[in-house]
């Protein structure tokens, strides 16, 4: 994967004491992951760390991306039963798997993936209460940023039953072209910085690290109310 320019960054934010996000960039595996833990101090960060570790291990063993994420769901539950972390801990996840310039992106929860090709395209659909309201036509897109339940997710790794029917991992795929980029992020970015401003930063900034740094800075400038984690990857020129 030496033909991919990538960078990652994470910040606790301005109001939280603990960073419950975890992330991974493994060009050797063609794997990039953002996980946003929940469950409070010493639980959320455990859940997100287990999610990243288990997905990575499963990919190393040759499992498909969706099955790797399902394995992480079970691993978080098993850890809670052992007394690691806390009962009810969970994590969102978004992961990208590249084979050459072909990508697969799978996710659970409201961590997001975007495709940039001169315009910004959201590849993921949040597993959230407000997304369900939007799908039902009960609210509009413009109402989401101020909705009181905008941070309530409808599913997460480690939460609910252990069977595959208790978690639905969504998957999209596509091809990266010249000048394209993928952005993975926790809701610490997407909850603070609107898509139009994300698009502006990607348009104005060259290079994966500079883009990551500017996106995190924008989230902090907007209030930094949550942990924020960002990964950008793009084919090298």
Helix and strand layout, with pairings?
Blueprint: E1 4-11, E2 21-26, E3 31-38, H1 44-60, H2 65-82, E4 90-99, E5 102-108, E6 112-116, E7 120-122, H3 129-135, E8 170-175, E9 181-185, H4 187-190, H5 195-204, H6 208-221, E10 228-235
Helix pairs in contact: 1-2
The chain-level structural class is alpha+beta
Q: How far is the first residue's CA from the last residue's CA?
A: 14 Å
- If you average the pLDDT, what whole number results? 93
Q: In sequence order, what are the helices and strands, one letter per element?
A: EEEHHEEEEHEEHHHE
CATH architecture: 4-Layer Sandwich
Biggest beta-sheet profile: 5 strands, antiparallel
What percent of residues adopt helix (DSSP H or I)?
Answer: 25-40%
- Gyration radius, rounded: 17 Å
What would you say this structure looks like, in words?
By secondary structure, this protein is of the alpha+beta class. It has a single domain, classed as Phosphatase 2c, domain 1, CATH 3.60.40.10. The chain is 30% helix and 28% strand. The chain is built from six helices and ten strands; from the N terminus they run E-E-E-H-H-E-E-E-E-H-E-E-H-H-H-E. It has helices at residues 44-60, 65-82, 129-135, 187-190, 195-204, 208-221; strands spanning 4-11, 21-26, 31-38, 90-99, 102-108, 112-116, 120-122, 170-175, 181-185, 228-235. The protein has a five-stranded antiparallel sheet. It has a five-stranded antiparallel sheet with strand order 2-3-4-5-8, covered by helices on one side. Helix 1 (44-60) crosses helix 2 (65-82). The longest helix is centred in the first third of the chain and has 18 residues, at 65-82. The mean pLDDT is 93.
């Amino acid at each position: 994967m030496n033909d991919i320019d990538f960078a990652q960054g994470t910040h606790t934010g301005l109001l939280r004491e603990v960073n419950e996000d975890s992330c991974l960039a493994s060009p050797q595996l063609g794997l990039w992951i953002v996980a946003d833990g929940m469950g409070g101090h010493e639980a959320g960060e455990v859940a997100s760390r287990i999610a990243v570790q288990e997905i990575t291990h499963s990919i190393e063993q040759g499992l498909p991306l969706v099955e790797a994420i399902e394995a992480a769901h079970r691993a978080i539950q098993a850890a809670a039963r052992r007394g690691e972390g806390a009962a009810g801990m969970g994590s969102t996840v978004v992961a990208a798997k590249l084979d050459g310039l072909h990508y697969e992106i799978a996710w659970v929860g409201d961590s997001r993936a975007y495709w940039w090709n001169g315009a910004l395209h959201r590849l993921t659909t949040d597993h959230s209460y407000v997304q369900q309201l939007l799908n039902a036509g009960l609210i509009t897109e413009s109402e989401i940023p101020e909705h009181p339940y905008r941070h309530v997710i409808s599913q997460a790794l480690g939460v609910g039953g252990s069977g595959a029917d208790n978690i639905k991992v969504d998957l999209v795929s596509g091809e990266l072209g010249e000048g394209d980029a993928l952005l993975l992020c926790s809701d610490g970015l997407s909850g603070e910085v609107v898509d139009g401003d994300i698009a502006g930063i990607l348009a104005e900034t060259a290079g994966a690290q500079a883009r990551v740094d500017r996106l995190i800075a924008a989230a902090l400038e907007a209030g930094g109310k949550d942990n924020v984690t960002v990964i950008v990857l793009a084919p090298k020129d």
